[in-house]
Fold each of these.
Amino acid sequence: MSMALDVLSWALILSGSAFCVTGALGLIRLQYFFPRTHAASVIDSAGAGLLLLGLLLQAGWTLVTVKLIVIGVLIFFTSPTATHALANAALARGLSPDPAAEDVRSKR
Amino acid sequence: MFDVAAVALLAALGLALARAVGGPTVFDRALAANSIGTLAVLMLAVIGFLTGRPEFLDLAILYGLLNVVGTIAVLKFFRYGDLGDPGEQETGR
C-alpha cells in the first residue's frame, strides 16, 4: 500500500516538475504577451497542482497536509485572478491580442 | 526524488527570471514576477520536504499571500497610475 502511494506520489511530483519547466520554457519561447499568459497558467494550474498533490501523498495525515491544502487552495484561487487582472490591464493599456495579424496588415 | 523536483523548479525559476529581466513590456515583467512567486511557493514547499523541516510550509503560505497582493497592487498602479487612493484631482472631475 505504502509502496503504491510512494510510486504514485513520485509520478505526480515528477510530472508536476515537468509541467513547471514546460511552462517556464513557454514563458521564454512564446513571442507575444497573451500567449505567454497561457504558458504562465500552465505553471499555476498543472505544475503547482500536481506537485502539491504529490507532496500531499508524501505527507500522510498530519498538520502538514492541512498546510499543503491551504497553499493549493490559495494558488488555485489567486493565480487565475492575478492572470485575469494582468490580461485586463494589458488590454486596457492597448496591447494587441493578435500582434501577428497587425504585423501582416502593416506590411501590406 | 525531492531533489529532482527542486532542481527542476530552480531551472524554471531561472527561465522565468530571464523573462522578467528581458521582457519587452511591463506586463511581461509582471507576469514573470507572478510566475516566480508561484514557483517560489512550490520551491519552499519542496525544500521543507527535502530538509525534513515542515516549518517551511508556513513561509510558503505567507509568500503566496504576499505574491497575489503584490501583483494586484503593481497592476492597479500601472493601469490607473495610483493605488486606488481617492485623491483630490479625482473629486474635481
Note: Chain B has one domain: 2-82.
Amino acid sequence: MIKILHRADIDDQTATITDSVAWNNDNWFKVNWENGAFPKASISCENTFHAFYGCKSSVIVQEVPVFSSIPTYAEAVELSIGFQDLDSFDTGTYILAESGDEIHVYHRHGWPGYSIYTIFKIEYKGAAIYLRNVESMVTLTGTSFKLRNPPHMVQLAFGERRDAIYETEAILDHLLFHPNTAPFLAHKMIQKLGISNPSPDYVSRVATAFKEGSINFGTTSFGNGRYGSMSALVASIVLDIEARAVVLDADPSHGSVRENIVKLVHLLRALNFTKRTNENEIRIPTNLFDRIGQSPYMAKSVFSFFRPEYATVAMIDSKLVAPESQILTSPSVVSFLNGITSLLSFGLTACFQGFGEITTNDCNGYIDDTSYKNERSRGSLILSFGNDDSVVDELAMLLTGGRLNSSSRTMIEANFAAKNNPDEALRYAAKALIATAEFHVTNLFHPIANFSRPDVPVPSLPQEEYKAIVYVMLRGGLDTMNLLVPYSGCKDGKGE
Amino acid sequence: MLKTYADMYEQYRSVRGIVAVDKEDLLEIDASSSQQVCRTFGVHKSMSVLRDLYNENDLQFFANVGAMPRPTTKSRWQEDTKASELFAHNTQEKDVQTLDRTFKPLGTGIGGRMIDALSEKGFKTGSVSIAGPCFALDSKTTKTLIVPESGYPEFGKSRNVTGIPSLIVRISSSLVAFYLFI
C-alpha cells in the first residue's frame, strides 16, 4: 500500500490537485512492487534521498510492453488494459502477426514486433475482447525499485458516471462468471425444483448446461447457447435422468419435502378453485406467514423461508438435508391442515382457521360440507367427479401424483363408500388425502407392516422442581462491545 | 506507539468513540469475586433486568466468547477463520448458536449438546422454542417442541373434520414416515 505524503512538485502554479490524490488525505493505494522489493528507511533507502519521514525519490513513469513473444491464453488474460474492436480501424492499421492456442496477435502498422501497440484478441466470458500489450511502470530514479501503476476503471482524480457503470458491470460479470457460480446456482435450483440432495454428477450436468448455455434432450434443444442461460439450466434440471427415473421414487433420500405454499397453490389449482364472480383476486390473510411459515413476498431474509442446508435432528449424522422441513413445525402442520379442511368445507373464509380473510362474523352458519356454496366465502373448490370408487383414484392422481400407498387408499375408499352425501364423500376423501404422507413429500411411501405410530401420552406438569436455561438470540442490532463495559477497578488499565 | 490509559473505561471510550456508552447510562455490577480484569462492569441502564438477575445470582456473563476457532492476528485471520465465513450473517448466526469449533455444515447446537450431555447422565431433559426451529437447540437425543407465540393451534375443532382425526390415527403408519421429517 502506498500513500501520497508530500505536495507534488509542479512548475505550473495554476495547476490544482484534486482532493482524492492530494498529499493531505488518507487515501492508500495498493500497488505491486516489482519482485516485492521497495525502499525502506531502515536500510538507508538505497540511493534515494533519506528524508526525516522515510525515503524520498523522484519517479519516472513509462509505458512498457508486457510480452516480447506470444503469450499463452492464461498469461494474456491477466493483462488489464483493454482496446477497441480492431475492425473499427481502417484496413491495414493492425496486422495479424501470429496466432496461438485461442489467441491472435496484431501489430500496429509501422510498429513491427512486440511493442506497446501490440494487441491481443482472445475469447473471454463468451465474447471477443482486445487487450493492449502495455503496463505503466513507475521507476524510482537512481534505484532498481519499480512498481506497477495500478490499473483502475474509474479515474482517481475525475471519476465519471460512465466509468462507474462499467466497473459495476465488470463486478457483476466477475460474480456471474466466477467458477463457483454455476455449481452453486445449479445445486440451489435443483433443491428449489424438488430434489434436496442431488448427486454431484447431477449438479455437474446442470452446471455444465448453465455454462454452455444449451442442452439437448432427444431432438429438442434448450437455451440460447450463451453462458448463463436459465432456460438451459431449468431444462437440464427437470429433464435430467435423476429427476425422471421412476425407480428413484423408492429411495427415501430422493426428492424433497414439499413447501407449504406450493402445496396450497397445488390444491387450489388441482381442485379447481373458483373465485366468486365479484372477486378480482384470491386474497389471503396477512398472517399466513405466522401460521404456515410462508406467505408471498414474506421471506424473512435473502435466504428464503428456510435454509438450504437445514437438516432435522434425525438426519444430522446422515449428511442429508431437508430444507423445507425447517418450516414444517408441528404448529404449522396443524395450521395447514386446519386451513385446508376449512377451505374444502366452507370455501375461502376465515372460519375455523381458514386461509381466507374474515368475510363474516357468523361461522356458526357453516355446518356441513355443503357450506362451500355459501356466497359469503371469497371462492370455493368446485369438485366435479363421479361418485364411484374411481373418484379416490382420480383425487389420488391429482394430489399425490398417483403415489398413494395401497393401505391408505383402501382405507380412504372404504370411508368414501360409506358416506351417503356425495358432496360430503368427495370432500372427505380430499381431506384424508391431504393428511397422507405422499401429499407432503415427493417420493414413495411403503407402510411398515404391523407398525403404528406409538401412542404419546399427554405430558403432565412435573411435580419436582426443575431448572431451565433461557436462550435469547438477539439477531443483529446488539453491539456486544456495549453489552458489558469495563467500569472501574481494572488492573490492566492501571486505574484507581 | 500504543497510548496507555489510566483506566480501562477511558480506554473503552477512546476505542469506541461516539458509540461508547456514558458512565451515567451504565448500571454498575460487582465482579470482584471473579477472575475478570475489572472489579466492576457496567450494563446498559435499559437492561436493568440483567443487572437484577445478576445480583440475584440467576445470570452469568461469559466474556470474550465468540465463534472463533482459535486466537488470531491481523496478518493470519484469513487463514485462521477460513471455516467460519466471518462476513456472512447467516453463517455467523449459525456459528454463534452452535459454538462448534469444527464448523461442520451440519451439527448440534450449544443448548442441544447440553441436553445430550444431561440425558446421558440420566437427567430428564427437553427443549421448547417459541421462535421456530433454532440451531442452538439442535440435539442428537431430543426434538425441540416448537410453540407459536400465539399459542398452540388445535386440530379438528370444527365440525367440518368429523372422522378425519380418527382416520389420521388409522393411517398413522404412513404418518410415521411423515413425522420423521418434521
Note: Chain A touches chain B through 90 residues (CB under 8 Å).
